[in-house]
Amino acid sequence: MCELFFDPGLDIKATESPMGFIYGPDIFGPQVENRKLNDISKSLLDPNCEGPEIVYSIAMDVGKKNHRELLNSMHLLYGVVTYAAGKLGTEPIRSQGHIHKVSPFSNWSTPEVYEIWSGEAIIYIQEYAEDNPGRCFAVYAKPGDVVVVPPYWTHATISANPNKPLTFGAWCDREYGFVYDGVRKHKGIAWYPVFNEFDEIQWVANPCYQSSKLICKLPSDYTDLGIKKNKSIYDTFEENPDTFLFVPSPQLRKEYWINFIP
């Protein structure tokens, strides 16, 4: 069993062997989907690296049973993910990177609201999956931290500590979908994370993109979105469900996304 260092407001426990989740009696959720090394290897700095066969397990659409109808009516979905401990060669355990597809509900690529439960995360985001990646950020997050990914941005989730599994939850649009084309065309994201000899993350520019600058930072303050520090995003939803209407309907906060800093 993986120990959670932040209470997400849901009776869910992450497991390591096999990787997945155990749901409490008042929680609904699916069987996990596993992402294997072969699924993401082409987006790594070293596509032939060795690492865990199952890189991470994901369960999309979990929540309290008494919220199921409300979540459906709001077009809102909560997902949970747990990463293996270890490394992918010299690289950290991570996702390959994607953009959210344009949702037929809003006709927008939708944002995502991450919350770290255990481990150490870096939410990497870049404006575009084109030759010019635009602004690039690496947002370092620990248990209890929230990171918002804005609409249309490419992003990847990285485990910054090879000795600990990473577990997190996220609010998503119910008709979520992932677009990988731009990332795969460029053999990954614009900046590759790599461990140095002290297991610290270093960043290597991906030569398939034009030159860019990487800004490493802590998460921004999202109180303007109704997100409160030291309160889980599920508890916030339970208290005021309308807080997260901007996830399936990002056009409601279209001014907020201009010059967004995560």
TrEMBL record:
Keywords from the named record: Gluconeogenesis, Glycolysis, Isomerase
Protein name stated in the entry: glucose-6-phosphate isomerase
Pathway info: Carbohydrate degradation; glycolysis; D-glyceraldehyde 3-phosphate and glycerone phosphate from D-glucose: step 2/4
Superkingdom per UniProt: Bacteria
Reactions accelerated catalytically: alpha-D-glucose 6-phosphate = beta-D-fructose 6-phosphate
Enzyme Commission identifier(s): 5.3.1.9
Gene Ontology CC annotations of this record: cytoplasm
InterPro entries (alphabetical): G6P_isomerase_prok, RmlC-like_jellyroll, RmlC_Cupin_sf
Listed GO biological process terms: gluconeogenesis; glycolytic process
A GO MF term: glucose-6-phosphate isomerase activity
Family, similarity comment: Belongs to the archaeal-type GPI family.
Domain Glucose-6-phosphate isomerase prokaryote: 52-195
